[in-house]
């Protein structure tokens, strides 16, 4: 049973050993070290300075912790995990993230996984953000708020909307019950435009959060294209 859950071969190169071997772990596409602390986009400025976009039009979340860039072979791994139900990836991806981000400071009081619309949850059978939150919550001893956020409908093509439309649109995507804590981290697998996590962050702030962070496995490197 344990072998089934956590195979004794590397999922990427199939060599016997850990579920992801040291070589394959080292070869996962990491984000460049100099990146925006607020949205995790790499930039060419000084370390620990925000990107131009966050300075001009800051997102509603305070910080983004991401480990990887959404590129090969991680993109295929995430695809197998989410769309082909290869749940063995949950632990591998969650642990690789923990190993890569290193010790975290200013831990949130609770984790808030991005919920799926109930129809998508029914067809997929699991919520990948919830699985990550469970793993990270256990590893870091942080409670997970599973049933506080509800997705009212599928996200529209957020990036195509203007700013005011985006704001209006996001108000109706998520509903969050009054939160029992002030500092939460939203959990998702991949950050692309940031539209989804921004919408949930706004809903969490409305529901009583004072600080919202974002933790994602990976972010795309060309979020605005
Ligand atoms: Zn390997
Ligand atoms: Zn930024």
From TrEMBL:
It holds the Pfam family DZR_2. Residues 2-55 form the Double zinc ribbon domain. It comes from the Bacteria. PANTHER family: DNA UTILIZATION PROTEIN YHGH. Belongs to the ComF/GntX family. This is ComF family protein. It comes from Thermithiobacillus plumbiphilus.
């Amino acid at each position: 049973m344990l072998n089934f859950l956590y195979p004794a071969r590397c999922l990427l190169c199939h060599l016997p050993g850990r579920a992801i071997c040291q070589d394959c772990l080292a070869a996962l596409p990491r984000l460049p070290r100099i990146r925006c602390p607020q949205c995790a986009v790499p930039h060419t400025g000084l370390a620990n300075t925000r990107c131009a976009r966050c300075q001009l039009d800051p997102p509603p979340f305070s910080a983004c912790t991401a480990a990887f860039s959404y590129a090969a072979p991680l993109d295929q791994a995430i695809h197998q995990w989410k769309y082909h139900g290869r749940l063995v990836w949950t632990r591998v991806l969650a642990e690789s993230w923990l190993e890569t981000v290193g010790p975290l400071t200013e831990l949130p009081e609770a984790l808030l996984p991005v919920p799926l619309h109930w129809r998508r949850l029914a067809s997929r059978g699991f919520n990948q953000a919830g699985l990550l939150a469970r793993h990270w919550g256990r590893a870091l001893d942080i409670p997970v708020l599973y049933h506080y956020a509800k997705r009212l409908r599928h996200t529209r093509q957020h990036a195509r909307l203007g700013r005011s439309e985006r704001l209006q649109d996001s108000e109706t995507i998520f509903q969050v019950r009054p939160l029992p804590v002030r500092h939460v981290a939203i959990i998702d697998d991949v950050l692309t435009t940031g539209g989804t996590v921004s919408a949930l962050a706004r809903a969490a702030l409305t529901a009583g959060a004072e600080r919202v962070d974002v933790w994602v496995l990976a972010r795309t490197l060309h979020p605005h294209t």
